[in-house]
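The protein record filed below.
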Amino acid sequence: MNDKAYLLDTSAIFAFTDNEEGADLVEDLLARAKKKEISLHISKMTAMEIYYVSLQEGDEREAHDRLLLVRALPWLSCPWTKIWCCLLLGLKGGGRCRWQTPG
């Protein structure tokens, strides 16, 4: 492994997923992480915020899909689980979290 690590915050993830200003920087970091030049991480709070903000702006499906997109990046370390995220959302989001596998 390498000794350079980056912690992506919520705004970096949304810039990437929504193709906003800064998306190119995040894409560059993802490419470098894929080559194992650096390591990338997101915090548990960032994961929760991704879901919560997406839920507020859209619906449960959109929030779920966006979080799955982030989790699907194999070179991004995500130290959280579905259950942990849903428990937090139950407190902050009024218990609206119903995690389902897309299908």
About this structure: The chain has a mean pLDDT of 77. Residues 3 and 66 are 29 Å apart (CA to CA).
